[in-house]
Amino acid sequence: MSEAKRLHPAAIIFNFIRSLREAIFLIIFGYLTFSDTYFLYFILGGVALLLVLIATSVLSWYRFTYRVEEEELRIEYGVLVRKKRYISKNRIQSIDLTSGVLHRLLKLTKVNIETAGSGTDAEASLKAVKLAEGERLRSELKKGAGQETVEAQTEEDEEVVPQDQPTFKITFKRLFIAGTTSGSIGVVFAAFAFFFSQFEQFIPDEVYDTTMNWVIGLGIALMIGLAILVLLVLWLLGIAGTMIKYGNFTIVRNKDELFITRGLLEKKQLTIPLNRIQAVGVQESLIRQPLGFATVFAEVAGGSMDKGEDFSTVLFPIMKKEEVEGFLQELMPDYADQEEPFKPLPKRALKIYLGYATWPLLFVGAAVLYFIPQFFWAVLILIAVFLFLGYLQYKDAGFRVEGKRLSIRHRTFGRMTVNIYHRRMQAFEKKQHKLQKLQRLASMKVSIISKFGAGKHYKLTQLEEEDVDSLGDWYSYRKENEVPGSSAE
User: Fold this and answer.
1) Rounded CA gap, 111 and 128, in Å?
2) Residue 6's beta-bridge partner residues?
3) What's the whole-number mean pLDDT along residues 301-325?
4) Fewest beta carbons less than 10 Å away: which of 194, 245, 358, 424?
5) Which residue has the higher pLDDT, 155 or 78?
6) Helix H or strand E segment including 175
7) What is the distance between the alpha carbons of residues 313 and 336, in angstroms, rounded to a whole number?
8) What percent of the chain has pLDDT above 90?
9) What's the start-to-end Cα distance of the chain, in Å?
10) Which residues contact 314 (CB under 8 A, 6 or more apart)?
11) Can you tell me the distance from the alpha carbon of 175 to that of 171, in angstroms, rounded to the nearest whole number?
């Protein structure tokens, strides 16, 4: 593969789409400025901009070449200024393949190459290569780095997985449950509200006023029904989004790597070296926990933050809580839960949790009582709900030390359990304010490295002060005595 190669010509389309997306605000500004009196100039400027974008897209494709030579991936690119990037095989952490709708129609893939120093973007990205070429490139780069990879695809776009490798796939039933319990309706609603607020100014005043008058004239019952219908549609969109994102989810362990494939429309193939995993956790949302379902995730050091990705890497979208142990035993036995009891918080911490959960509502209640006292009952219901949430936060919080592994359990809304090894911790911090000193309580924070080198922090508040001090000693190796809440390794 030492001969320099160009990307597939379809990369011109991807370059053009990216350039057009970056220029969209300029186009909108030009339309708002010149559409009334200088519309002809706007059209001429738009045509000129379009020609420039097409020309730069073609030149960017033509000037971009790559090759593998002397244990390096060598990339040359740049229209006016020629740039060269050499990436040693030994520095490569992972090679991910992503295939969007257009990629899959043309049997192409996008190759993202990440190193330990990758920032918010991948170290190198080949936007469009033939699927077979992407597979060969990944195998070539991994072979030079002393790694092996799962050979992924046939012409029918099906995964070929050796039978002796631990493999987990999501079923359609579980995928549907993941969509219905994802809570993504809030995200969809926020996106819908943002879209409406941004483009409201483009709606003609006559249409807007007529629509608003029609909605107001529906009456209370019909308005409630319309609101329920809108929420139902948004809920269905949230389900569809989850199923599209995690459709055909498969995770395979191949020696020292985890290989994840997911996505219905945009197919992603992610490679996660086990030595980059900083922590493994289990998340149980308020909706999923009563149903006995949980999500397994990992914090992975380095890498890039692709559009639409979370800070944490999902290892499995949804499974029964009792299945998590077997899942981790197969893929990452070092992180399997040993079911040792967590050391709980002291009883005197409960009143602090309840106070923190409800004190903002006291100001809201005072305002409601003064301005609209007839709705004070709603504030009382909210206070009761947040008191219950504060109790759950207190009840679920705790920690456990097993040899060199620290497990932390806490709750904001959903309950989260995180397992972190001592060697992965970047910092340990103890915090204590005056009220905590009076109660002999303290808070702790553990920091690890997450995606694109950013820090990820896990906190536990209102612990026994001596427990926090013991954890600090355990972290810094100051003492060899047993930590409260610990068990032998």
Assistant:
1) 8
2) 65
3) 77
4) 194
5) 78
6) helix 172-180
7) 17
8) 47
9) 48
10) 246, 295, 296, 297
11) 6
